[in-house]
Amino acid sequence: MHIKWLIEGVTSNNPNTYSAKRHLRDLISSNRTIDIMFQILTAFSALPASIFYLLEYLLLPLIIPYNFASVRKLGCGFARITLATQMLPVTLIVAIIEKILNRLGFRVILVDGFIQQFYPHLW
User: How confident is the prediction along the chain (123 residues), in pLDDT tens digits per residue?
Assistant: First the structure.
């Protein structure tokens, strides 16, 4: 998603950023070491990057009209996507709590309700 958002953030009306052959992500994945380093960087930078992309979404339309075309087409605003991204660590904690409670004999379903609350079906 980092590369998709980066490309969409600085281009106008370009929602299909994964459609090109020899995409940057394809080049990165062709080298195993670089691909692993990229995945680690992605994991650690996902939360701060989502804030960066939110700012890009809000400020760059003054210079680049209709950037983030795929998100704008949804009509939900990038803030909802940013919130969902920021909630990922909480989702993991809720899943761990649900697993522990189920192992202790309590039949609870927490994750489904949490996902329905914070991760609306936008696509």
Answer: 677 777 788 888 877 776 556 666 677 778 889 888 888 887 788 778 888 888 888 899 989 998 888 888 877 778 877 887 778 788 889 999 999 999 999 999 999 888 888 776 655
Q: Is residue 116 part of a domain?
A: yes
HSE-up (13 A, CA, CB side) for residue 76 = 15
Enter the pTM of the model: 0.59
Same domain, 69 and 113: no
13 in the same domain as 38: yes
Query: Is 11:67 a contact under the CB 8 Å cutoff?
Result: yes
Report the alpha-carbon angle 35-36-41, nearest 5: 95
Domain region containing 98: 87-123
